[in-house]
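Final report, closing paragraph on structural work. Over the funding period we assembled a curated collection of sequence-structure pairs, and we close with a single example.
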Amino acid sequence: MVRAVFAGLALALSAATPGGAAPATQAQGPPAPEDGSEPFKLASGPAIYLSGRINDHPVEMLLDSGATGTVVDKKFADRIGLKPTGTIRVAGVAGAIQGGAASGVTISVGTFVLAHQDVTIADLAPLSALMNRPLDMILGRNAFEAAVVDIDFPAGRIAFREPSTYQPPQHAVAVKLTDASDGFFYVPVSIEGKRPVKAELDLGQEMSLSISRTYSDKQKLLKGRRTSTMLIAGVGGTSIWNVLRVRSLAIGGVAFHDLPAYVSHGGELPRKEASVGLDVWTRFHLVVDLHAGKLWLVPEANATSMAFAHDRLGLGMVRDGDSFKVANVAVDSPAAAAGWKTGDVVTAINGRRIDASYFDGDAHRDWGEDPAGTRISFTMADGSVRTLTLADYF
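Its predicted structure, as stored:
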């Protein structure tokens, strides 16, 4: 399996746009609360997809609080006539890519409209291929600056509320939300009962919890535990991280237990101690109120009793045309025990060929997270068939 981290889509101007720096972003006000909410799609992974428009062209956009700006895929931008000027450096957890800048862009989701926006245009195709799903646009902090973003995960609906009149949900708990100078949003969390740390609120991170190498080493989290490796996909490509299970994570008085955590190997964004992703946030009705400096949380009734999904296979694979190529074999995993190697090519899984239709329905999912004891068959490029039995390995 591959875990996606859009985390750290840090956009840095590396060359001035013609005529000087890009103009400041302006936002048309969000709709009044009575205008209601919009449905969103929680794609497998998970990832939040919104149906909207950019310069009046329909687009499916991924919502990411961990992106310091909005990014439009280069091919999609070409298709709708959005032309870049200047140069932007887009930094991510796996490296950095170059992009262009565009201004005067209008973005909308339902009745919520962001006018006169500055966006980055970059090639998102490699990340789309790693995710095995289309990625035409990432909607970043622009939305959170303009509105109170109210995400009701249990109901599958999102609303962009007027900050000056916003009232939080009944029984919501307020958690301090910091808009830091690095462009990211942070909340205090406690990992295994230790002193609170500032963790990034990252709605573009699939993983429950990611931890910096510096913090992990300081707390000796990798010592004396079952650990392994995991292929992480992000802007700039892929990276191999360590994975382990932590005993607890506490946020806003809600404590989660026995959850997977992923330890980075440094990279572009080493300053963060931790990031909390969608595997945790989907257990709440969550409201990001940047204007009041608060994250409002209403946990689901079974928020803490639901087990966290985790890989039991040990194959990090990326799409390569009508096949998957193995990019990582996790240490001590079922795949490693069976002798799988980096570079192995899979053309079908459980008898289903890896073609365009494979990614349309339920066939494309994290089958590596199925229960222990589940058997999965793989058809290889040479026609041979291999079978793996899922088991816990970290």
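The chain has six helices and 30 strands. The longest strand covers residues 95-109. We thank the funder for supporting this effort.
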